[in-house]
Amino acid sequence: KNQVEQSPQSLIILEGKNCTLQCNYTVSPFSNLRWYKQDTGRGPVSLTIMTFSENTKSNGRYTATLDADTKQSSLHITASQLSDSASYICVVSAGREYGNKLVFGAGTILRVKS
Amino acid sequence: DGGITQSPKYLFRKEGQNVTLSCEQNLNHDAMYWYRQDPGQGLRLIYYSQIVNDFQKGDIAEGYSVSREKKESFPLTVTSAQKNPTAFYLCASSGNSGDFSEQFFGPGTRLTVL
Fold first, then answer.
1. Which residues pair with A14 in a beta bridge?
2. Residue B15 contacts by C-beta under 8 Å, 6 or more apart in sequence?
């Protein structure tokens, strides 16, 4: 069964600190992996996308890594800001034989405190 | 939210009523999607449409119906047959028919059954 598991479920950190969110997946075959940020009551917004040949991708203070061999990804947030408080969702795209459908993780809820 | 609008933002329904959620996009995207989001779960696909006048069931289509009469519009009707409709509903669109990956999300509609 194609699944995406994220950890931790929730996280509280102090402003200015770094944090790392984890994503493990069993989706196979694999096309690409994307991290989304979702503010409360809003739609998800894409942060990064990586294909199986990429092992790191940065977007400002967000850096995503991918290990396609172990089927693990992480999202590292540097120098956190209050505006980083949101849910972070890992999404894996299955291959063409699955119609390139997306499999969503449940998300990690991040709260940044001052 | 990038050119995708959903209305209303909040919707209340009495049991036994059908309600329709609106989704409009001005991105000239061919494909549109409806997802349902429940607390602690990943997004689940309800219906998708890759081209005008055509749509397919997703993973949880029972109790829902859609139409795609115009490229810009993909309304979702939640029927009385949907036994647990209270959820956050997200509409998305993508520019490449058949490729689920490059999806842009609307701001969502929160439906509550009274």
1. A113
2. B80, B113, B114
Measured CA to CA, the distance from residue B5 to residue B7 in angstroms comes to 7
Can you give the pLDDT at residue B100? 59
Residue B103: its pLDDT value, please?
A: 87
What distance in Å separates residue A102's CA from the closest CA in chain B?
6
Q: pLDDT tens digits for A43-73?
A: 999 999 998 889 999 999 999 999 999 999 9
Q: How far is CA B51 from CA B44, B58, B73, B91, B97, in A?
A: 20, 15, 11, 15, 7
> Which of A34, A40, A104 to probe by mutation at the B interface, max B CB count within 10 Å?
A104
Q: How many CA atoms lie within 13 A of A5 on its CB side?
A: 6
DSSP SS3 for B106: coil
Ordered per-residue pLDDT tens for chain B, 114 residues: 459 999 999 999 888 899 999 999 999 999 999 999 998 899 999 999 989 999 999 999 999 999 999 999 999 999 988 889 999 999 999 886 555 567 899 999 999 998
- Strand pairing of A10-14 and A108-113? parallel
Contacts of B113 (CB under 8 A, 6+ apart): B12, B13, B14, B15, B85, B86
CA distance A101 to chain B (A): 6
